[in-house]
Amino acid sequence: MSRPKILIIYTGGTIGMIEDTETHSLRPFDFSHLIDNVPKIKKLDYEIHNIQFNPPIDSSDMSPEGWCEIAMSVERNYAEYDGFVVLHGTDTMAYTASALSFMLENLHKPVIITGSQLPIGEVRTDGEENLITALQIAAALDTNGDPMVQEVAILFEDYLWRGNRSTKMSADHFNAFKSNNYPYLAKIGLGIHFHEEALWRVPARRPLKVQTNMDCNVMSVDLFPGIQEAALRHMLNVPGVKGIVLKTYGAGNAPSQKWFLDLMRETVNRGVVILNVTQCVNGGVHSELYMTGNGLAGTGVISGADITTEAAITKMMYLFGMGLRSEQVKKYMKCSLCGEVSL
Ligand code: ASP
């Protein structure tokens, strides 16, 4: 058996940061610093190569161009490597994981995204373990000799999560990510215990196809009691907007006032896709439960079921990026393309 061949794509984030001597804030630093701090990597009998963003970035500066850079690096190296580890800041990791899950069509190799809460040079860092476990997951095979993970996933501390189901839950804790509506893909303990029934599998293996055109004419709007008609009307009428993720209450409920429902109907009739996504971290939209949810559904706003905001926004970018019209986008928003929503 040949040694597993893994490509590390280092984009930046806390994992590779050092303290700036003048400001004392953390700033991204280069890959050699990061890898020099993990001498244990040499104990893995893997062939590991790396590429890095130039310069590495804080993930708050991540953008669709950055996602394309990662996706194209995977595409260029797809045949040559068994798996990919993306080192990334935690702040927008769930957006990147979601975006890549759509952009990397027909993926059947592991793309494991990880980072850390403390820089790798610090004594109590979580970065070292996260990096090593991510490499092991990227190299893991199932009993057929196929990659164990055939999707984009986030490895953080004790768990492996489906990328497009994940959300950053904590700015303080090492277990910073969670997928609130989908089980973990693996639990990390003394060993790596894969939850095989939860892993994504495609019935037919097709060549990888990368979709790099993401349309950013989308936005997310949070409802709150007291939201003003003028403010909401202004947001919904932003020139060029094609898709809106409407963050509603509970099981997908929204105000029943006439001005609100008329505004939703007008916007939908203009051809804008409005997706109802709950503000709750767990559970999904069930518009039929309450009159207030029913009223919203009656305006043509569609249900996002239990999709995360991160997956909803990036899925809309992806679908509009393919040049699809509103009706087609609505159709695909109601389906699961790569395990992002429960049907
Ligand atoms: N600001 C950092 C980033 O997202 C935070 C982190 O990596 O944990 O790049």
Question: What distinguishing features does this structure have?
Answer:
22% strand, 343 residues, alpha/beta, four-stranded parallel beta sheet
Ions and ligands: aspartic acid
Strand order of the biggest β-sheet: 4-1-5-7-8-9-12-13
Largest sheet: 8 strands, mixed
- Give the overall shape: globular
Work out the oligomeric state of the chains in this entry: single chain
Helix content: 25-40%
Query: What value does the average pLDDT take?
Result: 95
Q: How many individual β-strands? A: 18
* Structural class by sheet pairing and helices: alpha/beta
SSE ordering: EEEHEHEHEEHEEEEEEEEHEHEHEHH
Calculate Rg over CA atoms.
21 Å
Indicate the proportion of strand residues.
15-25%
Taking the alpha carbons of the first and last residues, their distance comes to 40 Å
Give the uncertain stretches in residue-range form: none
**Count of helix runs:** 9
